[in-house]
């Protein structure tokens, strides 16, 4: 029932007290005259008072008591005369004219609009009041049919429904036309706008309910959709796993069917995650990011399956069946098909990788873990695709396709006797390949250009930087021994010297030169499995570098050390060749990529196209002479103590700050640090072969080095500041058009050197980011060591 109901019966709330309009008797029964002095309140005023009371109760409930004035005023003269109370609101302000308004103000705290004629004129016949509360009437018949007048004066016949009335329980006084009802009902019209507000509230409530129901239904639908996607993803992973096995084993015939099934599953998953239910879920606070991450990964997988996997499977189906690697033989046809397919699908792979790498923060642990794996996987795949795109055109000829034979010199470098390109080539071997068939000769010690052979000629710049001073004046080691060819940081030059020496000493015609260090061998042995030393010591992915760079020299007689190093290096290479066919090709690609980025695997070819491919792959080790390309800072080290002490060398390069200049160049502040980490106990136990043998060494633990800082092409190095407990004297030079700052270093155990300097790039580089190429060391030390 609308309104408040104030009963006047036993056990009920007291009735609203009548407002006396004179000195009349408050107990005059219903039906008696109520008008005039001394009579009870008129029906109109009683209705108004009751309505005002009801409004005040509602105002109290809303916390607005005392903050707003009510229209009209109980007990005012204007009210008793039937004057309409002025509506509240912005327009309901006190006016300066109108006598009725002024008279009313004496009894009413609420403002009255004097501009309204109703404020100064009575309504007809005390029938009721019109205003903010509408038109209120009392005194209808006992039958429950109640009458009121609309604002225009027309009679309105009520339905008699109790919900249309306010039941105040008042004993109304009557006149000739009125009498109380049986239950004391008073007809009233709802306040202006009240029904509309209630309708709006009802609509809002319905909308909220619909949204809640929709979210409930959507949540259920999302749950079922997610289960479907999870099931399809699981099936996809299983097929992909089988696909990898088939590629490795050479079973290419069913690859197209598998690829199409994967594509169908990925398309279905993409359709599911593109539905409105997933879109709506992506707007959920906080966890919407996880939904978007899942959608992005599915989208990327769908792109790869349709744009790369299907065409790749079709290409492989046309290749010669057989394992990619088996019994020392590379399936050139299949490997070429893989390389070509990866190259052709480069756009799809790169687009997918970009999407995955762009996934933002996630909050659900399982989703975060999955995103991290996806980012790593796609980044690795992107690297493989990039490599395939560059190597595919020259791969067949490098593998001796069509019956040709290629000969490659392989240098096994030792980082404990450090050289600018990596390390002293402690042993070497020749690998031949014909139609993919690999044959690796024995690894032997490096040799020298002994009489009657003459040292190979070198340039004045090379002599100044690598062979002059410290008792070496006039002694051309760079062109004399294969062990020193890697002193130049320009690997193509080092490889040419080595291949020319191999030709002069042995008579081999060399097509290319590979150089690897024990750390890279350890990466590879971690994938293909381990090998053994002659005494049974296992050399594998956990210890190869330590065994080859430390333990051999500490645990075996000097006369056996070089032979053991050569034997283990050869055994490791053979192990890699033999096990490639049964190894995870993606892991092998990852190991090669890591070794290349660290400068631990280098390649040179006499063929110009192949050399360009090596440079594109980042394994050429060539000095950068083009000022328009990305600038490269070179930080290189050579050992001049003739020792194996570089096991203890800690070298670091950090770019501290950068400023872009108006001319297109960029200025960087860079710090390079060197430290001899040897301990007193290690010095005391150090074998003689490990110790320094240069006559200028201050002690057996003296790290005698040369540090080289190569400026980027077209750039410079300036503002050099040195410090530390060791000693260094800096000099200036040039090499192949590059500016070089270099210095001789002495560091006893525990001593260090710090060199701070400014690198300015060429204005032609266009603010491209500075890259650093540096000599790989035997160990990677913790930051606090």
Protein architecture, described:
- This protein is an alpha+beta fold and 785 residues long.
- The protein is built from 19 helices and 25 strands.
- Strands 9, 10, 11, 12, 13 and 16 form a six-stranded mixed β-sheet that branches. A five-stranded mixed β-sheet has the order 22-23-20-17-25, with helices on one face.
- The longest helix has 56 residues, at 194-249.
- It starts with 42 loop residues before the first helix and ends in an 11-residue tail after the last strand.
- The model is unreliable at 1-41, 64-151, 155-190 and 210-215 (pLDDT under 50).
Which key phrases capture this entry?
alpha+beta, 6-stranded mixed sheet, 5-stranded mixed sheet, disordered N terminus
> Strand pairing plus helix content: what structural class?
alpha+beta
Tell me, briefly, the overall form. Answer: globular
Low-pLDDT regions: 1-41, 64-151, 155-190, 210-215
Helix content estimate: 25-40%
The number of helices is 19
Number of strands: 25
Cα gyration radius (Å): 48 Å
Mean pLDDT: 77
Biggest sheet, in brief? 6 strands, mixed
Oligomer: single chain
How far apart, in Å, are the first and last alpha carbons? 84 Å
> In what range is the share of β-strand residues?
15-25%
